[in-house]
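In the previous chapter we treated chains in isolation. Here, by contrast, the input contains two separate entities that must be folded as one system, with a combined length of 995 residues.
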Amino acid sequence: MINPVEWPLVGSLKAVATLFTRMCAGRETGFNLGAPSCIPIKSTMDNPTTTQYANLMHNFILKARSTVREIDPQNDLTFLRIRSKKNEIMVAPDKDYFLIVIQNPTE
Amino acid sequence: EANDYKKKKKRRRRLERGDGHPEIYPLVLTTKTQEIFNCRVEEDVTEEQPYKLIRKEDIFADFATRAAVSDFYPVKSIVQEYPGDELLLVYDRDFKYGLNFYLIGTEEGKENYLNPPELPEEQEEYKDHIPEETYIYKPPISKPWISLGSEKEIEEESVKDSTKQITYMISRKRSEFGAPIKFSDQNASSVKDAYIECTAYPDKNFTLKQLERDVGMQVVPQIKETSTQTRWTRPKNATTQYYPREFLEEEKEALGQSKTLTEFLNSVSTSVEIALQQNEIMNTFIHDWKCLAEEEGTFGDKTDTHLKEYQSFTDLHSLTEKMVTCVSWHPVIYGLIAVSVAVRLSFEERVHFSGKLLLQPSLILFWSFSDPIHPQLMLESPDDIFCFQFCPTDPNIIAGGCINGQVVMWDITAHADRIENIKAGGSRSKKVTLKPMFLLEPENNKEAMYIRHCAVSSIESGHRKVITDIHWLPDTFEINRLGNVFENRSGISCQLVTCSADCTICFWDIRPLKASTPQPQAEKKKEESIEIPFDIPSTFLHLDLSWKPLSKIRLSKGETTLDHCPTKLSLSEDNLLFKAQEKILAQSKAVKAGEMNPYQNLENALSNILKPIDDFCTKFFVGTEEGEVIYTDWKMERDPETGRFMAKKPVSLYTVHDGAVHTVQRSPFYKDIILTVGGWNVAIWKEGIMTGPLLQSCCAPKRYTSGHWSLTRPGVFYIGREDGYIDIWDLLEKTHEPAQSQNICITMITYIKPWTFSAVFSPHILKLLAKQQFIAIADYYGTLHILEIPWTLSHPSTNEVSSISHYFEREVKHLDYVEQRRKIREQEKREMELELEKKKVKTFQKSKEQLEAELKMDYESYLELEKNILSNLGLNKEKEAMSYMELI
C-alpha cells in the first residue's frame, strides 16, 4: 500500500520539497520541517505561521516525550497526532529533527 | 388596762423614734461643731446634763458659713421646719441611736424629753398605778342594722343548690357484708356501653393559626482571606519586542544536505504517509451517534407540515377586477412586498374597454405586514406590468416590463425613508379599520403615495408585444452590442435583459449613450420634451422615451418564419443571493457615508475601459410558449454567408411541456440545475447534459401555473396549480409525485415567491427569520397570500445539499445509462430485424422441399389406397396386371 521512500544520501532542500509535494496529494495543508532548536528549515506555509507552529510544537513534543519516557524509560515517542475541530496536526519527532504536518480530515 | 394601753402606745412611740425616726435624728458632731455650739463632750454636755438647747439662728449661721460641711446639714430640712426657736440636742453617750448626738425634731418631743423624765415613765409600766383618767366601760348596745347594699353582693356570691339533690341508696345483701372481695380485670370496651368517653378532637374554633413569625436572619458574605508575600519593586513600563530565530539560507542548505536529515526523513516519511492515508480513508473521530440525530432546537411543532396562513393583501380600492402578475419581496426591508397587478381581461376585452382602462392607473403596490389595508407605496406605470424586478445593487431602482412592450423604470430613493420606517415586525396593526372610500381622508403618514415612473423605453425600437420576463444582469459583468462579455467596473447592475412575446430577447443598458448625437438636435429635443413634474427624480431622464435596447436577439426557428416565443429566461449566475446582498450592504453603506450614489452618476460608468472576460458562459435557458426549453447563446457570431452578426442557433431544444413554460429557474443551491414548469408537468435540467431532463414528472391532474424553488431546502420546490392548490415537492421523499398538496385559494395561482434570506437584515430580524419564513402566493383574483413555512419545509436536514447533489449525479448517470441502453436497444433491434429477415428467407426454401416430399408421400399413399380399393372390388385384373407389371 505504501511505498517506502528511498532517498539519495546526498540530499538537498529541493528533494525535501518534492517529498512535500508528493505527500500533498490529498487535502494536506502544510508541512514544516524543524531543527532541534525548533527553528524551521523548510515549509510549505508562510513564514510567520511556520515559526509559530514550530515554536509551539517544540514544547509539546518535549513534554510528550518526557511523559512517555517517565512512564517507561525503555519507551520513546514515535508519533504525535493532535486532532482538533478544524484540522489534524501530526508530528514525527526524531533525535535531531521533527516534521510537522497539518491536514484537514475527511468529512 | 387603759393605762397599759396608753403605755403601750407610748412605748410603741418610743420605739419608733430611733428606728422609724419621726423625732429622733441621730447626728455626728465633730469637735469643731462642738466648739461652735458649745456642746463639747464631757465639758458642756455630760452624763448628768446630756442635752443642750441650741438656737435655730445659730444653726442657720453655721449653714451659711460652712454650707455642706456643716454637721447639721443632714437635718437641714428638719431644722427649717422646726416651729420653735430652740432645738434640743442630746448627747448620746451610749450610742443608743448609733451616733454621738441626736437631735429631737419636734417641740413635743423636746417637751417630753425635758419635762417628764424617762425613768419614771418606765417605772410606770410595771406599776399598775392610778390611771390618769377613769375609763368607764360601756357595753355595746345593739342597734338595728342599717343596710348599705352589701346583702346583694352576698347573695350573688353565695352558692345554693339549684335543684334538689338526688340521693341514691345502694346496699348489698346483708350476708355479703364483710365478705372478701374478689377483683378481676375487665376490658372496658368488651362490654357494650361500658364506658362513655369524651374523645379529644381538634376543634377548629380553638386552633390558632400563626400568621406571623418573627425570625431573625443575617446574611453574611463569605470571606476568605489569604495573604501572600510579594516582592515589591518599583513599577515601571516595560516592553519587549522579539523576532524568532531563523536560519540563514546557507545554514538551511547545509542542514538540508546533512546526512542526518535524510536519514530522519527516510525513517519518518513512512509513518507520516500512513497517518495521512488513514485520515483520507476514514475519519476515526466521528461521533456516529451524534451525526445520526437531526438538528435540535426546533421552534414550533416538528410534525406540522402545512403552510400556515399569516396574512393576505387585497387592493380593495380598485374598480375593476385585477389579477396579480408578479410578486417580489423587498430585498432589504423586512415585511415589505411588492405586487404588480393587471386587469383580468382578454385581449379583445381590453380593446373593447380601452377607453375605461386608460383612466385607471396601472400599479405596483407595496404592501407591508403592519398594514393589510393600505398599500405603502403605489408605483404608477403607463400600462399593466407583467413582470418587474428590484435592482440587485440598489433596491430603490425598480425595472418593470409592460404589456405594451415598454420597459419602465422607477426610482424611489426619495421615499426610501418612508418605507424603511414602517414598523417592522410581526405585530400586525391592531387598528385595522376599513373606511369606505368617501370617508378616506389623506392622513399624513398613511397616505399611499403615487409615484410616477422615471423612464420608459422607446416605443418604436423596443418590444412590440408584452414583455414576459425581465432580469437585471448581475454587476459582475457587462455586455456589449455583440454579446461579448466584459468586466463590470462600475460596481452596479446597469444592464437588463428582457424577453417578449414578439420572439425577441433584448439587452438594455441604463447608462446614457455616449454623446454621439450632435448638439442642435439635443436642443430641439429639449424643446419638444414634455414637461416632467418636478417630483420625479432625474436618474433616468436620459432614457425617457428614447431608450433603445443594446442588442436584440431573435429566436428564430430556422428557415420557417415562425419564431420561438420566449416566456421566461434564466441566465447563469442569476441567483447568487448572498453575493448580491453583500453588495447591497456595501452600497447602502457607501451611500450613507455621503458618497455619491452611482446611479445618480451614470455617466462616469461609461468612461471605464473594460476588460473582456474570457470563457464566460454566455448560454442561457429560455422557456417558450409552445412548451419548449431552449438552451441558447447570446453571443452573436458572424454569419459566414452574409457577413453580418447573427444570433447563434440554439444548442439544444426540448419539448417536454404541453403548455407554455412559465417558470425557468435556477436552483439557489446548485448553479447548473434548472427547474422548468409548464403545462401539466415539471422538469429538472442540468446545464451541460444535452440528453434530456434529469427528472420529468408525469402529467398532473391539474395544470401547473406557477413554480419556485425553496430557498432554504435544496430538494424542495413549490408548484401552484390552476385550482388554487399548491403542490410541495420534496426530492428526498418522493420523486414521482408531490410530497404534499395544500389548498390556498379558490382560483388559479399566478405567482409563488418565497422570501429571500438576506444577510443584510439586522441581527434581531435574522433571529426572527430563523423562526419564521414566509412564502407569498398570488392568485388570479388579485389577492396576495402570505403563508408561513413550517419548520420541516424550511430547515434543511443535515447533509441535504450533498444528498440532493448525489441524487442529481445519480440521475445524470441514469440518463447516461438510459442513453447507452437506448443505443444497445437500437443495436439489438437492428440485429433482431436482420435475423427476422434471414428467418423469413430460410423458411421459404425449406417449405418448397417439404412440399415436394409431402406430395410424393401423398401420391404413394394414394397409390396404395387405389390398390386396396381395386382389390376389394375384386378387380383382379388389376392385380394380375399389376403382377404382370411387377413381372415386367
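The longest helix of chain B spans residues 800-873. The longest strand of chain B covers residues 322-329. Compare these points with the single-chain example from earlier in the chapter.
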